[in-house]
Amino acid sequence: MKERIKQLELFFKSSNFDRGLRVGAALAIPFAIFYALGYFELALPVVLGAFLNAPGDMPGSRKRKVNAILISTGLTMLITAIILFTKPYLPLLLITMGGIAFFVSLLSVYGFRASLVSFSGLLAMVIAFAIDKTSTSAILIQVALMGVGGLWYLTVSLLFQVIFPNKDQNQLLSDTLQLTGEYLKLRTKLLISTKDRDQRMQLNFSLQNQINDKHESLRETLLSARKRSGRSRYEEKQLLMFISAIKIFELIEAEQMNYETIDKIFKDRKEFLKPAKQLNKRMGNHLIRLSEVLMQHNPLPDKEKLTLALTRANDTITAYLERLRLPQAREGALILKNLYDFQEQTLEEITAIRRAMDNVKEASKVSLKRQDASRFLTLHEYRLNLILQNLRLDSTLFRHSLRLSIAMLFAYSLGLFFEIQNTYWILLTIIVIMRPSYGLTKERSKDRIMGTLIGAVIAVGIVLLTQNEILYAVLALVSLVFAFALIQQNYKWAAVLITISIVFVYSFINPKALEVIQYRVIDTCIGAIIAVVANYSLLPSWEVFNLKQVLIKALKANKSYLLATQDLYKNPEDNVLAYNLARKEAFLAISQLNAAFQRLTQDPKSKQKEFQLIYEMVTLHQTLIAAIASIGNFITQHQTTPASVEFNMLIQRISNTLQGALDGLEQTSIQDNIAQAKAEDAHEKLLNKYERLARARDENIKLGNEALDTETLHALQEAYLISNHLGWLVSLADNLKRSTKRYEETILQEE
Questions:
Q1: What's the pLDDT at 690?
Q2: d(CA 417, CA 429)
Q3: Complete DSSP assignment for 417-454
Q4: Which of 99, 129, 451, 673 is most buried when burial is the number of CB atoms within 10 A of its CB?
Q5: Cα separations (Å) of 331 from 324, 337, 623, 690?
Q6: Angle between the 438-465 and 513-537 helix axes, to the nearest 10 degrees?
Q7: How far is residue 203's CA from residue 209's CA, in Å, rounded to a whole number?
Q8: Confidence at residue 78, expressed as pLDDT on a 0 to 100 scale
Q9: Lowest-confidence range among 238-242, 288-292, 398-402?
Q10: What is the band of 117 on the pLDDT scale with cuts at 50, 70, 90?
C-alpha cells in the first residue's frame, strides 16, 4: 500500500503530469471563456490550435521548444488551409493529401523534436476533414483562430516554465538516476549468475539505450541553459548531478570484466564475489531512492549501509588472500581489487550527488568551461539537403513516408467507397500508430484497439448512468489531462483515457453521441489493421537490413574511442576532453545499435535472419566498449607509467582489425601494417612485464617483506589490467571482424 501511495505521489509531482496540466489549461481556459461569452463557435478552432501544437512541447532548451511550437503552428495552419480549399475537388484533394502525408512525415529526418512537429502536421491534415468550412472567409477565420490557439499554447507552456522552471530537468535527472540504479543492479546479476545471461544482456541493451536518451536530453537542457548570462547556482547543482550520473554510467560499463575469466577463477569460490554483488545492489537501490527524493523533496536516505557494504567488499580481498595465499591468490585478488576500485569510485560519485541534493555550497562548483560544454551538445542539421539525401528506396524514413501516404490514400478511398461516416477516424488511427518499424506499429495497434474498447465501455457506461453535461465536460478535461500525462509511459491507458475524453466531448455537444461512438470503435480497428498490413507488405523495412549504417557508425565510434584512450595514456592532462568527447560518441553509437537490435526482436520471427549472429555482433560491440572504458577509467584514476611500445603496437593492431571490419561494410580496403606475429609478440611482452612484477613481489614476500606499498600495488594492477584487457580487446576485435564478414556474406548480399 505504501509503495502504491509513493508511486502516486511521484506521478503527481512528475513533469509528465505537469505536461498534462499544461495541455488541460491551454484547452479549458479559452473554451470556458468563449463558452461563457456566448461565442462557442470561436472556441473550437482556438482549442483545436492549442491541441494540435502541444506535441512539440518536449523537454529541452527553451529556444528549440519555442521554435518547434512556432514552426508547428505555421505548418498546421498551412496544411489546414490547403485541405479545406481542396476538399471540394476530389482528384486534387487526393494528390494533395498524398503529397502532404509523404513530405510532412519525411520531416522526421531532422530528429525526434522534428518528428513531433511532423505529427502535428499530419494530425492537422486529418482533423481538417472533420471541419465543415467552405467559404474563403470562413476558412481564413478558422485558420487564423487556430494560429491564435497555437500561440496561446506557447504562452501557457512558457508560463508554466516560469512558475516551475526546473521541473523538466529534475524529472530527467530523476529518470536518469532511477534507470542507472536499475542498470547497476542488472549488471550485478551478470557478475555471479551464469543462468539467463543472454536474456539479461538483452535487457542490458534496452536500459543502456534509455539511459543514453536521457543523457542526450539533459545535455540539451543543462549545457545550453543560460549560455550568455551564465548558469544559476541551481543549474550548476543540476549539472554536477548530471556529470556524476555520467561517471557512474561509465564506471558500470568499465566494471564489466571478462566473464569467462571470472567464471574460471571464481568457479568454486563465488562467495568472494557476493560482497561486491551486495554492494552494487545497495548502490543501485540507493540511486533509485535518490531519484525519488529528487521529486519528493524528502530527506536524503541514510548512507551508512553503503559504507558498511564497501568495507565488507574490501575485507573480502584480505580474506581471499588469507584463504588461497600468494602467489596462487594474486590474479583473483587483483580482479577483486579492480572491482573494488570501481565500486569505491561509484560510491564517491553517489556521495557527490547527495552533496548536491543536500545543497552543500562546494557542491555547486563545476569546472566545465562553457566553450567545452557546447562541444558535448549533439548538433542537428536542418539543411534541405538532408531530405534530398533520404529520397531513395534504401532509406527507412523514405519507405515509411511512402507507406504512410499510400495507406492513408487507401483508407480515405475505402471510406468514400463504403460511405463510412467518419473516415478521418481511420486516418487518425493510422497516423497515431504507424511507425517505421513493424514491431512498434503492431504493438501500438494492439494497445490502441484495447484502449479504445476499454475506454468506450467505461465512458458509455457513465453516459447511460447519468445525463449531466457539466459532469461530461469535467470528465472530458480530466481524462484528457491524464491521457497526456501517461502517453509516454503507458500508451494503452492513454488510449483508454483519450477515448473516454472523446466520448464525453461528443456527449456534451451531440445528443446522439452513442451512435457515433460505435463507429469510432469500428474505425479504430479498421485503421489499425490497415497500418499493420501496410507495414508488413508495402515496402517493408526489416531491421536486419537496416543495421549496416548503424554498425558502421558503431565501428567508427569504437575505433575513435580506442585511439582517444591511447592518447589519454600518453598524456592524460592534455587529452581528457578529447577522450570524454570520444566516449560520449561511442556510448551514443552503441545505444543506437542496441535500439536497432531491440527493433529487430520485434520483427516477425521469419524476418529475423541470422538473429544469433546479430546478437553476437551487438554483444561484441558492447563488450568492446566496456573493455576500452575499463582501461580509460584506470588511466584517469591512477598515476600510470609511460605507454610502452608494445601498448601502442597492440592498440594499432586492434584499430586496424576494426578498420578491416569497417572496410568490409563500406567496401573499401586498407593495408594492415601490424602483422599478426608482431602483435602476439607485443602482447607476450606486456604479459611478461606483469610476470616480472609478480616474481619480484614473490621474492619480497620470501624475504619477509609482506607489506605491499601503494606504488607496487598500482604497478601490478596496471600491468595486469593493461595486458589482460589488451589481449581481450584483440580477441574481441578479431571475433567482431569475423562476425561482420559473415553478416556481409549472409545478409547484405540478400538485399
A1: 63
A2: 19
A3: HTT-TTHHHHHHHHHHH--SSHHHHHHHHHHHHHHHHH
A4: 451
A5: 11, 10, 21, 11
A6: 170
A7: 10
A8: 97
A9: 238-242
A10: very high
User: Would you say residue 229 has pLDDT above 50?
Assistant: no
Residues in the chain, how many? Answer: 751
Q: Which three cell numbers stand for residue 367?
A: 569546472
Give the pLDDT band (50/70/90) at residue 270: confident
Residue 304 cell numbers, joined: 551508512
Q: Which of 257, 262, 341, 311 is nearest to 716 (CA)?
A: 341
The whole-number pLDDT of residue 693 equals 62
Q: And the C-alpha cell for 728?
A: 581481450
Q: How far apart are CA 507 and CA 473, in angstroms?
A: 9
Query: Whole-prediction pTM value?
Result: 0.86
Residue 289 to residues 494, 512, 554, 619, Cα–Cα distance (Å): 27, 50, 33, 30
Give me the helix-helix angle, 710-746 and 543-570, nearest 10°.
150
Is residue 693 within 8 A of residue 715, CB to CB? The reply is: yes
Other beta carbons within 10 angstroms of residue 180's beta carbon come to 28
Which residues have C-beta within 8 Å of that of residue 134, sequence separation ≥ 6? 88
Residue boundaries of the structural domains of the chain: 1-165, 167-225+232-367, 420-541, 543-749
Alpha helices in 604-644 (DSSP H): 611-637
Largest CA distance in the chain: 102
Range 703-709 average pLDDT: 61
Residue 219 has a pLDDT of 84
**Alpha helices of 395-542 — where are they, by DSSP H?**
396-417, 423-433, 438-465, 469-486, 491-509, 513-537
Residue 534 to residue 499: CA distance in whole angstroms: 24
Q: Cell 491541441 maps to which residue?
A: 51
Which of 400-409, 420-429, 585-594 is the most confident on average?
Answer: 400-409
Mean pLDDT of 143-160: 96
- Is the fold of 167-225+232-367 the same as that of 543-749? yes
Q: What whole-number percentage of the chain has pLDDT above 70?
A: 87
Whole-number pLDDT of residue 513 = 62
Helical H runs in 165-303?
Answer: 167-192, 197-218, 233-255, 259-265, 274-296
**CATH code of the region 167-225+232-367:** 1.20.58
Per the listing, cell 476530389 goes with: 90
**Count of beta carbons in the 10 Å neighbourhood of residue 302:** 10
Neighbours of 103 (CB within 10 A): 14
Check residue 674 and report its DSSP letter: S
pLDDT score recorded for residue 2? 72
Amino acid at 209: N
221: Cα separation from own chain's centroid? 15
Burial of 69 (0-12, 13-18, 19+ CB in 10 A): buried
Please check the confidence at residue 372 and state whether its pLDDT lies above 60: no
Q: Do 429 and 524 contact (CB within 8 A), yes or no?
A: yes
Contacts of 70 (CB under 8 A, 6+ apart): 150, 154
**Predicted confidence band of residue 681 (pLDDT cuts 50, 70, 90):** low
Query: In whole angstroms, what is the distance from residue 711 CA to residue 58 CA?
Result: 51
Rg (CA), the chain: 29
CATH topology of domain 543-749: Methane Monooxygenase Hydroxylase; Chain G, domain 1 (1.20.58)
Grade residue 228 by pLDDT with cuts at 50, 70 and 90: very low
Q: What distance in Å separates the CA atoms of residue 747 and residue 491, rounded to the nearest whole number? A: 34
Q: Are 171 and 14 in contact (CB under 8 A)?
A: yes
Tell whether the model's pLDDT for residue 605 goes beyond 60: yes
Cis peptide before 165 (omega within 30 of 0): no
CB 585 within 8 A of CB 561: yes
Question: How far is C-alpha 642 from the geometric centre of its chain's CA atoms?
Answer: 38
- Tell whether the model's pLDDT for residue 108 goes beyond 60: yes
Query: Per-residue pLDDT for 360 more than 60?
Result: no
Q: State the chain's mean pLDDT as an integer.
A: 85
